[in-house]
Amino acid sequence: MTELTKLTLAAALDGLKAKEFSSREITQQFVDAIEGARTLNAYVVETPEKALAMADASDVKLAKGEGGKLEGAPLGIKDLYCTKGVRTTACSNILGEFTPTYESTVTQNLWDEGAVMLGKLNMDEFAMGSSNETSRFGNVINPWRRKGDNQGLTPGGSSGGSAASVAADLCLAATASDTGGSIRQPAAFTGTVGIKPTYGRASRYGMVAFASSLDQAGPIAKTVEDSAILLEAMCSHDLKDSTSLNVETPDWRNDVGRGVEGMRIGIPKEYRMEGMSEEIDKLWEQGIEWLKTAGAEIVDISLPHTKYALPAYYIVAPAEASSNLARYDGMRYGARVAGENLTATYEGTRAGGFGAEVQRRLMIGTYVLSSGYYDAYYLRAQKVRTKILNDFVEAFESCDAVLTPTCPSPAFAFGEKSGDPVEMYLNDVFTVTANLAGLPGISVPAGLSSGGLPLGLQVIGKALDETACFRVGGELERAAGFVAKADKWW
Amino acid sequence: MSVTKDDVRKVARLSRIAVSEQHVEELVGELNGILSWIDQLNEVDIEGVEPMTSVVETDLPMRDDVVTDGNIRDQVLANAPRSEDGFFVVPKAVE
C-alpha cells in the first residue's frame, strides 16, 4: 500500500481531487501512524472517530467533484485552538478538562474548507517555552536525533507537537501559533516550514490568549507551498477579533514559484552575534549565495536595536500574560482547588494549576505592571518596540525582505537549557523581533548541522508582504533541495 | 532594580498564587536574574518616542450596540467546576 502519510499537502489534495485515493484511506493511515508514534507524545488528544466521520463527509463531496480548498485533508491542531466538543487546555492543568462549546475562527475556517481533524497537538503550557518541556502532558520528543546518538532532543517550542507531528508524517500539516518564535523555531528544529503572518492577518478568536499584542496564528507544514495553502485558509477578517485586519488574503500559493529576480535582500549585521556557531554562520552565507545566484541583490542593512528585542519581549509578554491569565480563577471553568476562603481558593487554584514557568512569568508580569513600575518597564518596553519597528521601516527603504538564521543553534537535548530561564529565552533572539514589530516571518529548512540535525533560515517581510516571504522562502527551498527526513525509530 | 523576599511575597499575593516560604527564596534569585537582564533597556534613548500600538495603522472598529448572542446558559455552565440550578456555585465571597 502506498504510504499516503508521506505526501505533501499539495500532492494529497491533488490525489484526493483526482480520486486516486479517498479521504477515508489517507485519514485511516494517519490514525494508524499516530497510534504507532505515541512515544513522540506529539498528540495530547486523538480524535480518530471524528476524523473518519469528517473524512467520510469529505468523500461524499469529492465524489461529486465538490468541496473546499482543503477537502479531505487530515490536519493536526495545536491545543491552543478551541475546538467545539474536543478538550482544549493549552496543555495547562488549570484548564482541567475544559471542553469548548464553541470553535476558534481559524479552525472553523479550516473545517469550512473541508479539512479533517486528527486531534490536538502538544505544546508548552500556554505557549510559554522554547522546548516543549513545560506541557502538563510531558515533553514532545523530536523525531530527529543526532547522528549515531540516541539521546532524546527537544522539538523546540512552543509548537513542539505541531512541528514533531509534521516531521514524523503524523498529519499533512498543522496549525501552530507564534508569540516570540513558537512557529519558526520548532520548524527549524524539525526540518519543517513555518510561517507567522503579519499581526492581524489571522483571527485570535478562540485561541487561548498568551500575549495579545504578539500572538499570531500560522501553519507548520512540509513545504513552502503547503504552508502557503494552509495560511491562506487560516486567514480571514473576523468581527470577533477587534485587531483582525480588514484586508484581502492574497493567492500566496502562486508566489512560491515566482523566484527572487530583482528582489533586494537585506542582511542585518546585528544578527551576526557573538558566540553564534560557525555552521549557522556558514548556512547563512550559503543562503546569501543562493539568492544572489537566483538574481537577487544583496544589501547590507542595520537593525541597531536588535539586542533590546528579547528584554523588551520579556516585559511585554509577561505583562500581557499576567492580565490575560487573571481569568483563571477556578470559578467558571477549569480546575478548582478549594481553600478555607475565597482568596485561599484563588491562590491554591493558581498555584496548583499553573506550572513553574507560567508562574514565573505571571509574577514578572505582575511586578512590571505594579504601581510605580509601569512607566519604568511596560511603557519603556513599548517605546523600545517602536524603535525596533522603526529600524525595520528604515531598512525596508533599501531592501524588500530580510534574511537571517532562524535560531542560534540546532535542536538541543532535554534539560540542556531549562536550568537558566534567560539562557532558554535567548533561543528566540532571531525570531522575536518580527513579533515585536508585527511583521511576517517564515522559517525554511536549508541544511543539516555537523551532527545531522536540520537548520533553518528565516525571511522577514514588510507588513502585509507575506508574498516576499513566500518568494524568498520558495527560492531557498529550491536551492537547498532539502529532502532529509528523520530516520523512523519510534 | 532588584526584588527582595517581601517584594516576591507581594507580587505572589497580587498574582493570587500561593507560594511557600522556601519557594520565595528561589524566586528572589530567578526574578532578579531576569530583571537584571531586562535592565539593559535603560540604555535605549526613548526621548520623544511613542509607545507602539500596531504595525498596520487601523482604527478600532465600531459596531452597533445590539445583542449578538445569548440564551446559551447551559453552554456557559458546561465547564463550571460546580453549578446548581443554572447558577455557578462559588465559595462565600462576603462574610
Describe this protein with a few key phrases:
heterodimer; A: about 500 residues; alpha/beta; Amidase signature (AS) enzymes; 8-stranded mixed sheet; 3-stranded mixed sheet; about 15% strand; B: about 100 residues; mainly alpha; Histone, subunit A; two-stranded antiparallel sheet; 3 helices; 2 strands; flat
Order of helices and strands of chain B: HHHEE
The CATH class designation of one domain in chain B is Mainly Alpha
Q: What is the global morphology of chain B?
A: flat
| CATH architecture name of chain A | Alpha-Beta Complex
Q: Biggest interface between protein chains, with counts per chain?
A: A-B, 73 and 53 residues
Radius of gyration of chain B, Cα only, in angstroms?
23 Å
**Which structural class is indicated by helix and strand composition of chain B?**
mainly alpha
Sheet with the most strands of chain B? Answer: 2 strands, antiparallel
Report the biggest beta sheet of chain A as strand number plus sense, adding barrel if it closes: 8 strands, mixed
Proportion of beta-strand residues of chain B: under 5%
Helix-strand string of chain A: HHEHEHEHEHEEHEHEHHHHEHHEEH
Please characterize this protein's 3D structure.
The complex is a heterodimer of chains A (490) and B (95). Chain A has 490 residues and is an alpha/beta fold. Chain A has helices at 9-17, 23-35, 48-63, 105-112, 160-167, 184-190, 224-234, 278-293, 309-324, 342-353, 356-369, 375-395, 421-425, 432-437, 466-480, and strands spanning 43-46, 74-78, 116-121, 173-178, 193-196, 216-221, 264-268, 297-301, 401-405, 441-448, 454-461. In chain A, the strands form two sheets. Chain A has an eight-stranded mixed β-sheet with strand order 4-6-5-10-11-9-7-8, with helices on both faces. In chain A, helix 4 links the parallel strand 2 (74-78) and strand 3 (116-121). In chain A, helix 9 (309-324) packs across helix 12 (375-395). The longest helix of chain A is centred in the C-terminal third of the chain and has 21 residues, at 375-395. The radius of gyration of chain A is 21 Å and the shape is globular. In chain A, 62% of the residues are buried. The model of chain A has no long low-confidence stretch (mean pLDDT 96). Chain B is mainly alpha-helical. Chain B has a domain at 5-43: Histone, subunit A (Orthogonal Bundle), CATH 1.10.20. Helix content of chain B is 35%, strand content 4%. Chain B has three helices and two strands; from the N terminus they run αααββ. Chain B has helices spanning 5-14, 21-38, 73-77; strands spanning 83-84, 87-88. A two-stranded antiparallel ribbon of chain B has the order 1-2. In chain B, strand 1 (83-84) and strand 2 (87-88) form a beta hairpin. Chain B is flat. At the A-B interface, helix 9, helix 10, helix 11 and helix 12 of A face helix 1 and helix 2 of B.
